[in-house]
Amino acid sequence: MKYAMVFNSQLCIGCQSCSIACRSENKVPDGLYRLRVKIQGPKGLFPNLIFDFERFSCQMCEDAPCVSVCPTHASFIDENGIIDIDSDKCVGCLYCIGACPYNARFLDTKTKIPNKCNFCKNTHLKNYGEPACVSVCPTSALIFGDLNNPKDPIYDVLNNHNYVRRKEHLGTKPKLFIIPNKKGEISYE
Ligand code: SF4
Ligand code: SF4
Ligand code: SF4
Predict the structure, then answer these.
(1) Where is the signal peptide (predicted)?
(2) Average pLDDT of 64-82?
């Protein structure tokens, strides 16, 4: 499989349920984030005010700089396209944190090794078939699926919407697809 995610900012209401669920499911230490949704705005003049929402998390790059710089292969792409960290192989050099152009990794203050989104691979995905953030989103702004399966609903979503991927010019080939807010600005560079 090739797991991917769509963040539809036209549907997002900035409720932060996804971020809270992620924190709980993956026991993320206080003050650190695998996932956050940034709210920009309001913009415009009353009564025509609008907000923009932007998801910050690992972009699940197909050509991942965090993987190529890792000297011990502790950072790796698994059989389902998930970029993950093997804690047994990690030597704590932190090269991967510096190499990520999306600031998606952080040093876990409990484990003392890098941490980041892995689509809840060992937690919610394993138990319920989808990441925790997807399961709690009240507006279905998050769609998770398999890019190798043409019958997967994520296929329809990508075929029927315009989407962007952050910093595409770097050649990282992110598998987090963003449907921009029609009313707002595209600010994904
Ligand atoms: S967003 Fe950063 S941590 Fe995630 S795969 Fe890409 S380079 Fe690695
Ligand atoms: S901190 Fe660990 S995962 Fe990151 S580059 Fe170094 S050995 Fe690899
Ligand atoms: S749970 Fe859904 S609607 Fe709420 S902030 Fe996250 S993506 Fe947006």
Answers:
(1) none
(2) 98
User: Cα separation of 99 and 63, whole Å?
Assistant: 12
Residues with Cβ within 8 Å of 32's Cβ and at least 6 positions away in sequence, in order, are 106, 108, 109, 115
Interval between CA 57 and ligand 3 midpoint (Å):
13
CA 43 to ligand 1 centroid distance, Å: 31
Percent of residues in the chain assigned helix, strand, coil, to nearest 5: 20, 25, 55
Beta strand extents in 94-140 (DSSP E only): 106-107, 114-115
pLDDT computed for residue 189 by the predictor: 47
Instruction: Report pLDDT digits (tens) over 19-50.
Output: 999 999 999 999 999 999 999 988 889 988 88
CATH of 3-179, one of 3.30.70.20, 3.40.50.970, 3.40.190.170, 2.60.40.2250: 3.30.70.20
